[in-house]
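anyone seen this seq b4? input:
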Amino acid sequence: MCDHRISRRHVLALIPGLALAASGCGQKTTGPGEIKWGRDTCDYCGMIVDDPHFAAQLRGGPGHKAYKFDDLGDAVLFLVKQGWASDPATEFWVGGLETGQWMDGFKAFYVGGQRTPMAHGFGAVAAPRAGALDFAALKVAILAKGSTSRCEPSGQSGGQG
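predicted toks r here
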């Protein structure tokens, strides 16, 4: 006759597998990812991401990976170089100028004249206001200015990353 009791040893052997299953078995593939403020680095320029009011994230491409940025302008410059930029599944998350909370960057409005980490000068707000740009106009403004003197993209001579 078979003994169906579970020993303590069997239960302890199952714990690592149960912990992995409870964690979701990997990274999430939608929405903004976790940022370790003051430790994570910008995927465009390699600088530390430390201000939630100007940070940004893109999620797209193979595996719908999250890319982190210290300044939303760097995210725009990075995005336009990606083959997946126009994919409807691509997500753009920006920290709110006033709250530091994540908002949809494609739907946000952008206020110029801000002192930002990489000197792109824009902060995101949820509702339109006088002089604010929508995403399409922001993209034009960022591309016209290009990379700032504070930033050289990772992977280029002299870049940090």
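The chain is about 20% helix and 15% strand. The mean pLDDT is 85. kinda curious what u guys think
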